Amino acid sequence: MKRNKIAQTRALLEANPLIKTEAAMKALGTTKSYTYVLMSKARSAYAQEHGHTINSKMANMRRLAKRIEIIRPNNLPEGMTVVEAEEIVADVNQAIARHDLVNNPAHYTAGGIETIDFIEAKKLGYNLGNVVKYITRAGHKSSQLEDLRKAQWYLTREINSLK
Q: How far apart are CA 31 and CA 22, in angstroms?
């Protein structure tokens, strides 16, 4: 019975990823707390089957944005307008860009300029580039003291290479 409910929940979520908990409860005939459990397990099973290893929240946001982008206006979730769907897609895409730790890490863009752009524009070498990198991210990613010590290490190495 439990597997059947998970399969039903998964089918429900695949048909309508924006389904509200209350609507899922009615469709499944379950309590609110059990519905949350079923929805979580259904999402996990889907992610495991499809080999998703990225952050599940970001994966859900990407799927939501993609799903809304391809939904026809007459298939939007109940009460949602095309404009609202487009706004959700835009918001999700912005959130993905802000939290993309590979292409757009927040600790490198603090202050409005990407650190690598500054390093390349000033034609800094490896050691001085790392000094700038660790100074600009100090306090934004991990331990501020650790980042400053790393910057100091690279600066000392650059100074010693000039002797």
A: 9
